[in-house]
Amino acid sequence: MVNPSALVWGAVFALLAVSGLWAEEPARAAAEEKAEFLRLSRDDQDRPLSLDTSIVEYGRPPDRQGVVGRPPLRVDLVAAVHLGSQSYYDTLDRLFADYDAVLYELVAPPNARPKPGAKPAGAIGSAQQGLTQILGLEFQLEAVDYAAANFVHADLSPKEFDAAMKKRGESWWSMFMKLMREGAARAEREGRQPGGDVGFGEMFGLLFGSGEARQVKLRRIMAEQFTDMEVLTATFGGEEGSTLITDRNAAALRVLREQMARGRKRIAIFYGAAHMDDFDRRLRADFGLQPRETVWLEAWDLREPTPAASPRR
User: For residue 232, what pLDDT is reported?
Assistant: First the structure.
């Protein structure tokens, strides 16, 4: 029998890799010492309200006299979930217009730009496309304006990606199984079931049912797993690292240095949320930057749909 956790983590894996393969005004809060990139907002009765991603601003710290280092530099980590509401991507497009450069992820030839309406290729791409319908969301590569003049490709090429995986002895299957093992081990340590409280029958019904309420229920299940970032970072980050996060982040930071050398002063790194802990560490250690302010954006609406009013007789 298929474990429901396999269905959930399989979907998480597809979401994790989405844009790596070929609303309202944001609320602001002061960045804490430990930057956060993904959160599940709840109401006072602990009911899920939304899945949110952050934009964390980094800058040079002041010197002993309290003077900020010169020349000025601002690097924002723009965390993404690769399926989201249309209003979420509209907000991102509006914010991206204010940057000198937006470094984006896409395992593709140099300077490749997704074409509007283009469909993802391959098995993972097909899974990602199916999730847009199941969850009632939009696909990032179709919703974001990658033709903007300030967008800069900052990722590995397919040839470089394959070479990095071969060097590490990795494959898509081995990474998926590694994610499953880490998720199960974490659940066991915490004394809970890896699939949560959802049985196989209920999961099957949710996947193949219909209606807005079903989509919200699925989004809630996915959000609970997706916000468990420690599983993702432990699996693909850490000391050993991985092609999926470590090597691709290194490629992005090489492009960051190039853009800095060209005099760009305000730069965004637009990557999946699972990449951000590693970026945070490298910006602090290698670039001498510190987090300042955090902006939160609502990516998924997790509120219960309002019941339709009964027609008057």
Answer: 60
